[in-house]
Amino acid sequence: MRRPRVLLADDHSLMLAGLRRLVEETCDVVGAVEDGRALVEAVQHLEPDLILLDISMPLLNGIDAARQIQKLRPSTKLIFLTMHTSPSYVTEAFHVGASGYLLKRSAPMELPLAIEAVLKGQQYLTPSITKPVLAQTMELEEAPAIKGSAVELTPRQREVLQLIGEGKGTKAIASLLQVSVKTIEFHKTCLMKQLNLHTTAELMRYAITQGLASEQP
Hints:
Number of domains: 2
Shape: globular
Number of strands: 6
Distance between the termini: 48 Å
Strand order of the largest sheet: 2-1-3-4-5-6
Number of helices: 10
Strand content: 5-15%
Structural class: alpha/beta
Helix content: 40-55%
CATH class of the largest domain: Alpha Beta
CATH superfamily of the largest domain: Response regulator
Oligomer: single chain
Order of helices and strands: EHEHEHEHEHEHHHHH
CATH topology of the largest domain: Rossmann fold
CATH architecture of the largest domain: 3-Layer(aba) Sandwich
C-alpha cells in the first residue's frame, strides 16, 4: 500500500524536525517549508495527500495559505498544528477547509491519531479544546461577522495587510505579490478607508491585533 505523502509547514526549524521524526514512521515526508507562500508553491509540484501546517507563518499565514491550497488542490487534507486556542481560529481553520486541528502542546500520540482519522475522511479536533471553547466556536459560526474585522477583507487585502504588519515596504510587497507598486498603494488606500485607519503604522498595529502578523522585535 502506498504511504501517504505529507508536507510540513512551520516557521520554526526545530518544530519541523520534530514533526518529521513523528510522521516518518507511517508517512513519506515529501517536503518542509517555513512560510505560507513557499507552502502554496510547494503544493503545486509536490502534490501531497496531507499538509501539517501552522497558522502563524511569515509572508502568508496558514489560514490564507489554506484558502489558496483548497483552490489549487482540493483533494489535499489539512491539519492545523498551532498554539492558538481561540474559538475564532478554530472556526476559521475549519471554514477554510481543515480536517484536523491540534495544539502544539497536545500529546505526541495525538498526531498519528489525527492523521489516521483525517486520511479516512473524518475530522479530528484535539480534546485540549475544551467544551466552553467549542460552545463559543458554534456561536461564532452562527453570529454575523464583526464589522471591520480582518475576516471581512478580501484574500488579497489580507495578504497585503499581513505583509504591511510584518514591516514590508510597498515595493517589497509588490515584488512578492508580483503586481505593480500602484496596485499595492491602491490596496493600502482601500484598507485605510475600510478600517478607518490613517497611517501605515496604524495598519501595522491592526494586522498585529488581528493575528495576521507578529510584533516586530
